[in-house]
Design goal:
Blueprint (H helix, E strand, L loop, with lengths): L6 E9 L4 H17 L4 E11 L4 E7 L8 H7 L4 H6 L3 E16 L5 E9 L4 H12 L9 E11 L5 H6 L7 E7 L2 H9 L4 H6 L2 E16 H7 L4 H5 L6
Antiparallel strand pairs: 1-3, 1-4, 2-3, 2-8, 4-6, 5-7, 5-8, 6-7
């Protein structure tokens, strides 16, 4: 299994161009450590568009779905740091999904990723899931250039929080497929062939939105604990003023 835990949060968004440099600094040195210090958060990865309509995808792998509605997580969302409050208005087009991991094949995360967001037609939900889990995804990790393939299903709607009120209303997410690999060209080929929009439509999917991303930053809770046993957020709190 290539992912940690049994659930995940997937975010897709843009940031206004003039804020990108500071956003990436904040996201790397404050935001990721803050999130990965929350009990149940296992790994965060930030991906940047190579061929996609939105610049960023962020994936948080968590122990269980309840982690995403826990008091510890909501406490952080409702009490943003000054730097977080400064960055939130720069977000655009946030899509945010709290998902169960319906299927995971292969191991590890490659440097390139294909993310496909879509919605199953109500009468074809079961057949679409069967196609993805039995035919489309299991074979991919063994192919040249690829490493892992995963199916996510939205399971609970995120609550409104102080962070969301600052940046604006988030859009929801239904299902998503994530395929990662070490060869960008071979990952990209999937969006034009095996996992193209026409193929998903034939199998009963609507609202197809696919994009190719490259891995920009990754942090696990174990790495955070090893670097700062008492919790990294406090250690980076002064970085904004440097």
């Amino acid at each position: 299994m290539g992912l940690l835990g049994t659930a995940a949060m997937i975010l897709s968004f843009d940031v206004v161009p003039e804020a990108i440099d500071e956003h990436d600094d904040w996201h790397t040195h404050e935001h990721f450590p803050e999130r990965l210090a929350i009990p149940g958060f296992l790994r965060g990865t930030r991906w940047v568009a190579d061929r996609a309509n939105t610049r960023y995808v962020v994936l948080y792998e968590v122990e269980q779905l309840a982690t995403l509605t826990s008091a510890a997580y909501l406490e952080r969302l409702n009490n943003p740091t000054p730097w977080t409050a400064k960055m939130m208005p720069h977000y655009r087009g946030m899509t945010r999904g709290f998902c169960t991991i319906a299927g995971s094949f292969g191991a590890g995360l490659g440097q390139a990723a294909l993310l496909i967001r879509f919605k199953p037609a109500e009468e074809r939900t079961d057949s679409l899931r069967e196609w993805l889990l039995s035919e489309a995804l299991p074979q991919l990790p063994s192919m040249m250039g690829l490493a892992s393939a995963h199916l996510f299903q939205s399971a609970v709607a995120p609550q409104g929080t102080s962070e969301q009120r600052i940046r604006g209303i988030d859009k929801g997410m239904d299902w998503a497929v994530l395929v990662t690999g070490y060869d960008v060209a071979r990952v990209t080929d999937l969006i034009d062939t095996r996992l193209c929009e026409a193929q998903f439509q034939r199998k009963g999917a609507t609202g197809y939105a696919g994009g190719i991303y490259r891995l920009e930053h990754s942090l696990t809770s174990a790495e955070l604990e090893a670097a700062s046993p008492v919790g990294a957020p406090a250690s980076v709190a002064g970085r904004q003023s440097q």
